[in-house]
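By convention, the token line describes the chain's fold. To illustrate:
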Amino acid sequence: MKTASSLSCLFAVLRLTFANPQVTDNVKRQDSELLDSYDFVIAGAGTSGLTVADRLTEAFPDKTVLVVEYGEVEYARGIFDPPMTIWGGSSNAASGWLLNSTPSPELNNATALVMVGKVVGGSSAINGQFFDRGSRFDYDAWDRLQEGSPESRKKGIDWSWDGIYPFFRKSVTFTPPSEAVARKYNYTWNTSAFENVTPIHASLPPFLWGDHFVGRDAWKEMGIWRADECANGDKEGLCWIPISQHPITAKRSYSGIGHYADVVADRPNYHLLVKHQVARVVYPKRNTKSGPPLVEVRPLDGGPLFNISVKNEVILSSGVFGTPAILQRSGIGPAAFLKSLDIPVILDLPGVGSNLHDHSGPRISWNYTKPIPFYPLPSDMLNATFAAEAAAGFNQTPAQGPYTLAMSNSAIWVSLPNITIDYPTIIDAIRAQAASPNTTALHLPPAYNADPTLIAGYRAQLTQLAQLYANPHSPSLESAWATGTSPAAVLLHPLSRGTARLNTTHPFEPPVLDYRSASNPVDMALHLAHTRYLRRMTRTDTLQKLGAVEVGPGEEAAADEGLLRAYVRQSTVQSYMHPCCTAAMLPRGLGGVVGADLSVHGVAGLRVVDMSVLPMLPAAHLSATAYAVGEKAADIIIKWKDE
């Protein structure tokens, strides 16, 4: 495997940041520049898609790969980049979609706000750079859900922790911080969790806010165990988390650099078509057994649609929302829904656009009543001099100051048995739903009632969720800390499920999202337990010495079940930007869309590689998992082609 040098990675950063968007001759902008056909076509130049494209063009120098991308090759300002004056604002809308779901009745008809990358590099170009992996138990649950999937056992494909961990290690190069930085913040890490052979980089940042120790010290007082490393599958306790950061520039490392700009120049078999959208895949004469399909492409400048022929296979990597939209436009999806839009049904696959879920949860908050002895704080960004220095620091090489932290790099992960003594009641409620199809259906989208495989698949998930929640080493709650007075109580394994359905009036726009947050009552019970647990922070000596007074939910609300429920309904954030699972890797009899080899059930030459294939959310932000899934998918494809 080719390992990029630090110097070449730096040049790639500079190319993307300052150069004309047409980086190399490999970038195409109109159909007249394309070959007559390609061996592989990948729909979407995001985190997973660019990973696969890199590995395939490297492994098969005699095979051609075309990546079709809606966005452009450009520098995209991330969520925590200047010139914003307050840390934690929104990214440049030109490089991302800001999507709103339909209202969720159980949360006072609030909507979920979701950000999706619209640039070469996808969401890895704009996200919060939090680069963690889930618990080993999450991925073991994925593998158990594949039982009954012929590809899983026949081809020896293993989605357990042992099966995916080598690809986590392969997918990132970790560079320890300098000795001075490590000593200053008491950073810990274990380099054995990283293989360090790839141009995707992670490190521990050189800057933390002045109050970074407040959250960590409070959590230590609560008895939360301090882990030296949480990337090795043991995801519990108080962890330092690396962020997606290049060791030379101290700026964002993402797939648009590591898996595109740094490798494409010397690969004539790699083409990237920008400002185009994959409209659908086309099986001539509706013969789904004769693949791969044609790829119908839509130029964003309003030009006519055109087809691309493919020799080996088509890989959909357009994300949790883009991939099901492509499938639905292609006539692959829930038959009743497609017929309602007069889309010819090529394959009735009810799981397409189903099983949508995301991390969610309320926050607790407090005020300080004593002088705050911390410097610097995000509020210092309101000082023009400090803000200017912060922006100037970001533009240095290596970057310095507040913008090198990104979102956070410290958090806790706590299991349900360690959160509440009432955990058996919650687990019993999950198991009761799994045992009763009629009860299960009450909490699911109405479309689930039309297909027993969706009900069966959800019941299988419930069985795994009950097992995860009963495990004292499997996290139920995450709370990240960087600064401030309002940490979130994030629900890691929600039971509620929503849908992503093609926009009937604007079919080429992102689909209509129905999150249905908290539609399953167990989620509310979990939110309540998590909120009560996290409130313990305000009673620690660390916070009491600062005169902390709880504001949300507050003593009065916390003492009353009804008031606490009302607080959770009002304050829950429905999306922490980790949507998943809309083309789930499950057997077809469980409402799955792809098998363990990531091939779409019932059609030839079509595979999905992005976060839509997850059957359930892991206890992690999804960037690192997206890279690992891309690496494992490429390995599956390469081995299959070599057979």
Notes: Residues 623-642 form the longest helix (20 residues). Confidence is low (pLDDT under 50) at residues 1-22. The two ends are 20 Å apart (CA to CA). The chain has 19 helices and 22 strands.
